[in-house]
């Protein structure tokens, strides 16, 4: 239903549509709507996935809270920086997942963090 509207004007995907400033992506992530989210991300720019709601939380934080790892994987594929963006209360997505006891999501995000550390620049002492 939303797809024809968003295809006509993809910029609508990056506008807040709720009182809390959530975008369509925030709502799709929270609702665990994998197919819709995948199609929506095709219409979005990489930076659009970093858009926060009024509390500072990205849609990736919502995905972390939902515990649906497939959504988090799809979002991270489009924007690998998402696990590093702090949300409400300056909490990382892994913290959000841990607070709601989503073990599978914590495990996935921990692996993302290790990959980030291992692939990042080497830190040497001076």
Q: What string gives the helices and strands in order?
A: HHHHHHH
Query: What is the strand content?
Result: under 5%
Low-confidence blocks of residues: 122-126
Tally of individual helices: 7
Overall number of domains? 1
Radius of gyration: 15 Å
Shape: globular
Averaged pLDDT: 82
Helical content band = 40-55%
Can you give a write-up of this model?
With 126 residues, this protein is mainly α. It has one domain (3-119): Ankyrin repeat-containing domain (Serine Threonine Protein Phosphatase 5, Tetratricopeptide repeat), CATH 1.25.40.20. The chain contains 7 helices and no strands. It has helices at 3-8, 24-30, 34-42, 59-66, 69-78, 93-99, 103-119. α2 (24-30) runs antiparallel to α3 and α4 packs antiparallel against α5. The longest helix has 17 residues, at 103-119. The termini are far apart. Mean pLDDT is 82; it is low at 122-126.
Concise summary:
The protein is 51% helix and 0% strand. The protein has 126 residues and is an all-alpha fold.
Which key features would you list for this structure?
globular; Ankyrin_rpt-contain_sf; single chain; mainly alpha; Serine Threonine Protein Phosphatase 5, Tetratricopeptide repeat; Ankyrin_rpt; 126 residues; 7 helices
């Amino acid at each position: 239903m939303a797809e024809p509207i968003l295809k006509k004007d993809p910029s609508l995907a990056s506008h807040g549509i709720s009182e809390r400033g959530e975008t369509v992506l925030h709502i799709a992530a929270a609702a665990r709507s994998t197919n819709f989210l995948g199609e929506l991300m095709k219409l979005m720019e990489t930076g659009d996935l970093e858009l926060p709601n009024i509390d500072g939380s990205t849609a990736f934080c919502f995905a972390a809270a939902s515990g649906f790892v497939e959504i988090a994987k799809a979002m991270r594929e489009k924007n690998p920086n998402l696990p590093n963006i702090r949300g409400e209360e300056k909490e990382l997505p892994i913290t959000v997942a841990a607070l709601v006891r989503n073990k599978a999501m914590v495990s996935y995000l921990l692996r993302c963090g290790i990959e980030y550390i291992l692939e990042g620049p080497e830190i040497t002492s001076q």
